[in-house]
Structures are given as structure tokens and as C-alpha cells.
Write a structure and sequence with these properties.
Length: about 220
């Protein structure tokens, strides 16, 4: 189970976000090496559904956000972004918590999914989101081909212009492999609505995103 977030501690951690940001240089060095040395893996469509991969803090949160988007058939929690084999929740080593998004490209496209990604997080927070801190919660946006990378790079360039002194923290990595998480993590927010973490972190994060992009939401996604 994810560590329960005590409300007072959450407020304290959020207040520190701008005061003592960790450096993103190490992640950017790793990004540069990966982009140079790794060829992105292109996944195959399944019954007309394409796949996209994102990491942005707790996968319980990210899964719920993407499953609220019209055209997304399913979001699956798992691990990606590292080199270790057979990661688990207790030991996923260099991987980040990530989600695999299965989507209908006739309803929602990759460009829009990237917009969802950036609209649903603190884009400048390094090594985490909200109260979840550490490399396991780092933000990564994965590309499978040059077209996807171009979309990502252009959006980051534009965001960086708007941010001024701050910069987008997410790594941009060539997709390699996704490892599906244990069964109890799937649809966690939906199946555990009374969990303190879900109440205090996941649902508020989802609702904040929904206010930003109501035009992309499925019907009946209220919390």
C-alpha cells in the first residue's frame, strides 16, 4: 500500500515545493543518453486501440485521470523508464510508476493525450508529484516514433517559454517496455474511494484536471 498521507504533512510538503527544488540535471543527462542510444519501440494497435505511456507521480492518480478522458478505453498501472527486469511494487528499482493508455484515435489523439499529461500535474516539480517524492514518482513522457517526439518537444518548448525561470521537469524518453503492476493496483482509485490517500490526493488532483479540460471528459465522471 502507498504510504497514507497525513493532511498536515501534505500541506507542509506542498509548501516546500517552490522553496527547495531538487536538481533535474541528472534526469536530463539520462534523457540525453537514452535518446542517443535507444531506439523507441513502436507498439501495435489492439482492436483499433493505440497505446501511449506516461509517468507523473502516483500511478493511481494518473490512471484515474486518463480513464476520465473520452476515447480512452483503459489505463493500466505499471512500471517503465528503467532497465531492471520484472519490477514489482516493493522493488521497481530504476523504474517510475507509469500508465499504459489504450485509446481510440478516432476520438482522442496523441496530441490531446499530451495536453492531458501536462494539464494534470505540476510540470516543474522534479522527482515527484505533490507529496509523493523520489525517482519512483518522477515525470516521464514516452515516445514511440519521431512524430510523437516532435509533438512532445514542441509542447515543452512552448511551456518553457511561459514558465520563465522554471522549466518542465519531465524526462522525454524513447519507449522501451511497460511492466504491468500487480492486480490490486488496477482501478485503485475507483475500487478504494475511502482510502485516505485517494481522498486527500488522488481525487483532488483528478478534480483539478477536470476543471481545466472539461471538453475532453467522458460523461458521468463526477466525484
Amino acid at each position: 500500500m502507498k504510504k497514507t498521507t497525513i493532511l498536515i504533512a501534505s500541506i507542509f510538503l506542498f509548501s516546500l515545493n517552490g522553496a527547495c527544488k531538487p536538481s533535474n540535471k541528472e534526469h536530463k543527462r539520462a534523457e540525453a543518453i537514452a535518446q542517443k542510444e535507444q531506439t523507441p519501440v513502436q507498439t501495435e494497435a489492439v482492436n483499433g486501440l493505440k497505446k501511449a505511456y506516461f509517468a507523473s507521480g502516483c500511478f493511481w492518480c494518473v490512471e484515474a485521470i486518463y480513464e476520465s478522458v473520452n476515447g480512452v478505453k483503459e489505463a493500466i498501472s505499471g512500471y517503465s523508464g528503467g532497465q531492471s527486469k520484472n519490477p514489482t511494487y516493493e522493488n521497481h528499482a530504476d523504474h517510475a510508476e507509469a500508465v499504459e493508455v489504450l485509446y481510440d484515435p478516432s476520438i482522442v489523439n496523441f496530441n490531446q493525450l499530451v495536453d492531458v499529461y501536462f494539464a494534470s500535474q505540476n510540470v516543474t516539480q522534479v522527482n515527484g508529484q505533490g507529496p509523493d517524492r523520489g525517482a519512483s514518482y518522477r515525470s516521464i513522457i514516452f515516445y514511440q516514433n519521431d512524430s510523437e517526439k516532435k509533438i512532445i518537444d514542441e509542447k515543452i518548448t512552448e511551456l518553457n517559454k511561459q514558465l520563465g525561470d522554471d522549466k518542465v521537469a519531465a524526462q522525454v524518453l524513447p519507449f522501451q517496455k511497460f511492466w504491468e503492476a500487480e492486480a490490486y493496483h488496477q482501478n485503485y482509485e475507483r475500487n478504494n474511494p475511502g482510502n485516505p490517500y485517494i481522498q486527500n490526493v488522488s481525487i483532488p488532483r483528478l478534480n483539478k484536471f477536470k476543471k481545466k479540460m472539461p471538453e475532453l471528459l467522458k460523461e458521468n465522471t463526477a466525484h
